[in-house]
Design a protein that fits this description.
Layout (H helix, E strand, L loop, with lengths): L2 H4 L3 H16 L10 H13 L4 E5 L5 H9 L5 E5 L3 H13 L7 E4 L3 H5 L7 E6 L6 H11 E10 L12 H15 L3 E6 L5 E6 L2
Parallel strand pairs: 1-2, 1-4, 2-3, 4-5
Antiparallel strand pairs: 5-7, 6-7
Helix pairs in contact: 3-4
């Protein structure tokens, strides 16, 4: 198959997402777990980095991956690390349904803490952590190693960082993570008030 016939257009992705939304409303699959504005942000970050290689922790049944593919280079490859095999299976179906060539995905059903340590240093343009907020700090250390200079790391579900009234241990840990990222000279980081909170950080050259 040549590159012209295998290319996925925004129209293809939109048509697939519309079909998927119908399936959600009918109860055939689980609802989306990521806000639409956050998905658009992911597409934007992928486009800004002209991402040839991206890695995500947590697949959200393929929703985040499809958003990344919308902004990635036409031959860009996504590595999706998801400890839940069923979610990864749904991601695979989502990518196939959207016409994403098999060679553009690496789907790994395993503990991300173990997998990330085996990925190649400085190989990735974009890193997404959408799994447990308590793991963000550990994944940020891996992101600093995996990203090329100028690469972007995105961390979801950190709304608690913006509310000093929340004092539970998990909430404090998220706030400390956010403050540490903003103070770290390796990163240029900012907290965005989208959905449940998004931290976007650029790895400085």
């Amino acid at each position: 198959m040549d590159s012209t016939s295998s290319a996925v257009t925004p129209r293809d992705l939109l048509a697939y997402c519309e079909n998927w939304n119908t399936a959600i409303l009918s109860g055939e699959i689980a609802p989306l777990t990521v806000n639409a504005s956050v998905l658009r942000l992911l597409s934007l970050c992928a486009a800004l980095t002209h991402a040839q290689a991206a890695v995500e922790v947590g697949s959200h049944n393929g929703t985040t991956g499809l958003a990344l593919f919308e902004g990635m280079a036409d031959d860009g490859v996504l590595t999706s690390v998801e400890p839940d095999p069923e979610r990864l299976r749904m991601s695979k179906e989502a990518f196939l349904g959207a016409g994403i060539p098999h060679g553009r995905t690496r789907l790994i059903a395993a503990d991300p803490h173990e997998v990330l340590t085996r990925l190649t240093d400085g190989h990735y343009d974009l890193f997404l952590s959408s799994d447990k907020p308590a793991d963000h700090a550990a994944f940020a250390e891996q992101a600093a190693r995996l990203l090329r200079p100028g690469g972007i790391a995105v961390f979801l579900n950190i709304a608690d960082a913006a509310d000093p009234a929340k004092r539970e241990p998990g909430q404090l840990a998220v706030r400390q993570f956010t403050e540490a990222m903003q103070a770290d000279e390796k990163w240029l980081a900012t907290l965005l008030p989208l959905a449940d909170g998004v931290l976007v950080a650029v790895l400085r050259p």
